[in-house]
UniProtKB/TrEMBL annotation:
Domain Thiolase N-terminal as annotated: residue spans: 8-176
Superkingdom of origin organism: Bacteria
Protein name: Acetyl-CoA acetyltransferase
Keyword Transferase appears in the UniProt entry: yes
Organism, as annotated: Mycolicibacterium sphagni
Length: 384
């Protein structure tokens, strides 16, 4: 694999809070864009191109009517939960190609309440089908977590530790949806949706928007004294044998996970290894996903997660902070904005601007990972 010598820097980030709001996804997207512009110290007329992603909106490019009809190139993308990670990759790669100097990646979404339980109605199924934990997505999450915990001797209590940690982190994040702590016991004793996953081990589809402005690294000093560099952004799909939602009859082989390949490709492109990562944002659609993705991104070996969680390694003050803004469990997941939220948090942490949730060891390298059904994964590496 070859890559351009052009380096890419992030000079501005903007995040509309995640939750439930009396406004459209497009309005939230416009607000996130303006926050990113303010952060970068540029105006909309300075942006030369954009990539935008959404699940609910078929034409995210229409956000330009709210921020300025300047005639820029704008491409809409959708890649399930990897949607905004795809926007990030395409924005960075377009700059690396030398076609433009400065561009923006945008994500926005507005999902209905209780989408995990209400979506069966769109398939002609009664509401109780989802309420009983029988929707295919949550079934898959439960089966995947159950197999992984069984194979690597990890307890259900460790899942509760993940959820409790992320909810604690969410309390420190003014942009989070869920800002209330729950004890590990409360999480374990909440209704089981799909064993071993209980109600509070899941994220909630919700609303929000995020934007990231990038430019050629050699001009970043014109805009900021604290550029954050996009060292790599790689996307991979699954291989035959991956354990996947929506059907596969192949024998299960965990090494086939697209996250494994996306992470390996990102480390190679960045010229580093997982041992160099100081902070991580991992897809935690459920608590089991965070545990699985810790190993799939190379941050630990399979089965080491229980001890790492017990020792506090993944806490904000630990040796490997994970999901310092609360992750999906605290923020929820507006699909089009989720990966950009991860990058927003990494940028804030690397700059030392994360407030109460700032990692005290001054992180210099971060990884963001997202995974979208039916088997698309992304890994993005940022550094100072």
């Amino acid at each position: 694999m070859t890559s351009s010598s052009t380096e890419v820097a992030i000079i501005g980030v903007g995040l509309h809070p995640f939750g439930r709001f009396d406004k459209s996804a497009m309005q939230m997207g416009a607000e996130a864009i303006q926050l990113a512009l303010d952060d970068a110290g540029v105006q909309w007329k300075d942006i030369q191109f954009g990539f935008g992603g959404s699940h609910e909106i078929s034409n995210p490019d229409a956000v330009t009517r709210l921020v300025g009809l300047t005639g820029i190139t704008f491409t809409n993308v959708f890649n399930a939960c990897a949607t905004s990670a795809s926007a990030i990759q395409q924005t960075a790669d377009t700059i690396r190609l030398g076609k433009y100097d400065i561009g923006i990646a945008i994500g926005m979404d507005k999902h209905p309440r209780g989408a995990f339980t209400d979506e069966p109605a769109t398939l002609g199924l009664p509401r109780w089908y989802g309420e009983n934990g029988q929707f295919v997505t949550t079934k898959f999450f439960g089966m995947k977590a159950n197999r992984y915990l069984h194979d690597h001797d990890i307890s259900q209590a460790t899942l509760a530790k993940v959820a409790a940690k992320n909810l604690r982190n969410g309390v420190l994040n003014p942009n989070a949806f869920r800002r209330q702590t729950l004890s590990e016991e409360e999480i374990l004793n909440s209704p089981v949706l799909n064993y071993p996953l209980t109600k509070y081990m899941f994220c909630a589809p919700d609303e929000g928007a995020a934007a990231v402005i990038m430019c050629r690294a050699d001009i970043a000093h014109k805009f900021t004294d604290t550029p954050v560099f996009v060292r790599a952004s790689e996307i991979r799909t699954r291989r035959y044998g991956a354990y996947e939602v929506h059907a596969t009859s192949a024998a299960v082989d965990e090494d086939c996970s697209p996250t494994v390949y996306a992470a390996k490709a990102a480390y190679e492109a960045a010229g580093i290894g997982p041992e160099d990562v100081d902070i991580a944002q991992l897809q935690d659609t459920d608590a089991g996903a965070e545990i699985i993705h810790m190993a799939e991104t190379g941050l630990c070996a399979d089965g080491e997660q229980e001890k790492l969680l017990a020792d506090g390694a993944t806490e904000i003050g630990g040796s490997l902070p994970i999901n310092t803004d609360g992750g999906l469990i605290a923020n929820g997941e507006p699909i089009g904005a989720s990966g950009l939220r991860q990058v927003h948090e990494l940028v804030r942490q690397l700059r030392g601007q994360a407030g109460e949730r700032q990692v005290p060891t001054h992180p210099r390298v971060g990884i963001a990972q997202v995974y979208g059904a039916p088997g698309t994964a992304s890994a993005t590496i940022l550094s100072l």
